[in-house]
Structure formats: C-alpha cells, structure tokens
Amino acid sequence: MKILVAVDESEESMHALMWTIDHHLVSANEIDSLVVLHVQKPLELYAYPIGPAVYASAVVIDSVKKAQQQDSEELLIRVKEICRNKRIESHTVIIDGDPKEIICQTIDQMNIDLVVLGSRGQGMIKRALLGSVSDYCAHHANCPVLIVRPRKEQEQRS
Amino acid sequence: MAAETVMVVGMDESEHSQYAFHWTIEHFFSNSNSSSIFKLVVVHAKPSPTSSFALAGPGAIDVIPYIDFDLKKTASRIIEHAKTFCENKSVDNVHFEIVEGDPRSVLCDSVERHKADMLIVGSHGYGTFKRAVLGSVSDYCAHHAHCSVMIVKKPKSNH
Predict the structure, then answer these.
(1) Mind listing the pLDDT tens digit for each residue in B60-76?
(2) C or N terminus of chain A, fewer CB within 10 Å?
(3) ipTM, interface predicted TM-score of the complex
C-alpha cells in the first residue's frame, strides 16, 4: 500500500508522520510504501516590508528564496531522520505550488492509496472547519484521507 | 510500537459504507500477521424507532414494535454480512457492535469505549449545500472524534 504523508513546518504534520509509522500503517517490507511530500508555497514577494520600497528587490527575493529552500531541506532532513530511527524507508519529494492542489495531483500521479494529513485540532470549537488543506483534500482527493489529531487531544482521553 | 492499533469502522447499509469497510479489510488486514497488529471494531448505529419519522395520532404507539423489529432485522443483516466478509478474508481480531442511537454520537462514543486509535467512515461525497442540509456523519466525526479519522470515498470514476 502506498501512503503519502504531506508535511509542512508545523509540528502537527511531523506528528502525523510519526503516528502513521508507529501505528503500523506503513509496511516495512514494501519499497516505495511511504512517500513524504513537502509543498513549497510560492513567495508573496510584495508582502515583505522593506523600508520605502513597495516591491522587493532582486537581492531580497533571492535571499528569501534561499531561506525557504534551506527551511525545506532542513524539514526533509528531519523527516529522513525520523524514518531512519524507525527503520522505515521513505521517498521524499519537494514540489512548488499550492499545497492542497499539489497534494491531490500527486495522489493521482503516484497512484497513492492513502494520504495522511496533520490537523491543527480545532475540533473543540463546534462547526469549525478543518484546516483548509485537510478540508480540501478530504473532499477532493481521489483516495482515502487520514486526518491525524494532535497529540494532546489524543492524550486527553486516556 | 508493539501495542495493537485499534480501528473502529462505522457501518450502515449504504454502498459508501460497504466500500469503506471492504477497503479497510483489503488494505490493512491482508497479511497473516495483521491480527496481531490491528484490532477492528465494526459498529452499526441502529436508528431508534421514533427517530426516523414523527408519530402522531392514536394507535401510533402500537406501530413501534413492528418498526423496531424491522430495524433490528436490518441491523443483523448488516452485521452478518460484515462477519461473513471477515471470515472469508480470515480476519479474526474483530469485534462487532450494534448500538442504538444517532450515528454521530454512537461512533464517537465507540471510539472512547474502545480507546480507538482510528475511526474509519465512508462518505457520500455530497457537495457543500447537500452537506449543510442533510448533515454529514463523516464531517461530524472528522471534527469531534478524539482520535485520527480516515474518510474513505468511493471513487467517482475508474481511472
């Protein structure tokens, strides 16, 4: 079974990855069983306040891009380490774009059987939406969607 | 990591629910050692006889036993199908339950009672408007269950 875990900088998505492995959802014997995807959101170049200039200069764009790439690489290093400690092989992928669309596209392209997403756990507030990515994927992904609750909610029960 | 993973799967008569159940068995319980790592709890929420319609007028009370009998028959049929399917696929670490009540609270309650790690539900794939009007068990569970929730949709087309 091919499982895709989508991760971003949030602790919840790292927890979702660890939860998936700890609960035996990933088959240790199968190759290509676990794919970890990180989607890099496009930079909002006009959003950075840099003195009187309205748009970021090329230098600033470059350094922000570099910082983003570094963050992504560090994220995947963490992912690889988690997988190695749990003796699971993983295939890591970084794609640029809008997370919810890219996740759904990747599911189709890689014939994924199950996608796992973290959740910010806003379930305590009645009728609150799931995070927009999990909500979108729950409705649009062409495979089952597993939404992993954050640790403290799960611990509250026991 | 040695403890078994407890999964509760909600089940009713709908095709979507059956699909979710079959998907679960086929993907998680296909290995011979599955029974040591996964425990499955199949829960059917049987509607109470008074919940599905409004009773009015004299003599209405007499109808309830007949309705209840019919609901019980349906519930048994659903669970029997699930049992047979599990036997055919050699799944033995499985427990079956019929609980009376609203599916939303029955499923969330089952999760608590069995200390489930995961709740699995099918989904009708209704659009936003239909969901708002008809209500959605999978939506409710995704927000309120105190465990991870897996939503299994029947694919719209075969590709």
Answers:
(1) 677 888 888 889 999 99
(2) C
(3) 0.86
Q: Is residue B37 part of a domain?
A: yes
Contact B151 A144 (CB under 8 A): yes
Which pTM does this prediction carry? Answer: 0.85
Q: Which amino acid is at B84?
A: T
How close does chain B come to A6, measured CA to CA in Å?
15
Residue of B nearest to A124 (CA): B144
Q: Which of residues A133 and B10 earns the better pLDDT score?
A: B10
Q: What is the pLDDT of residues A2-57, one digit of tens each?
A: 999 999 888 889 999 999 999 989 877 777 789 999 999 887 665 555 555 556 67
Q: Report domain extents, chain A.
A: 3-157
* Contact between chains at A154 and B37 (C-beta distance less than 8 A): no
Chain A residue numbers touching B23 (CB-CB < 8 A): 144
The per-residue pLDDT for range B72-114, each reduced to its tens digit, is: 999 999 999 999 999 999 898 999 999 999 999 999 999 999 9
CATH superfamily of A3-157: HUPs (3.40.50.620)
pLDDT of residue B152: 93
Q: Which residue from B27, B28, B146 is facing A156, i.e. has the nearest CB?
A: B146
Q: Which residue of A has its CA nearest to B30?
A: A1
Number of domains in chain B: 1
Q: Chain B closest CA to A116's CA: distance in Å?
A: 9
Q: Calculate how close chain A gets to B111, using CA atoms only, in Å.
A: 10
Nearest to B31 by CA among B96, B90, B118: B90
A30 vs B: CB within 8 A: no
Contacts of B146 (CB under 8 A, 6+ apart): A149, A153, A154, A156, A157, B108, B111, B112
User: How far, CA to CA in Å, does B18 sit from each of A125, B6, B36, B59, B64?
Assistant: 31, 19, 24, 37, 28
| A91 touches A35 (CB < 8 A) | yes
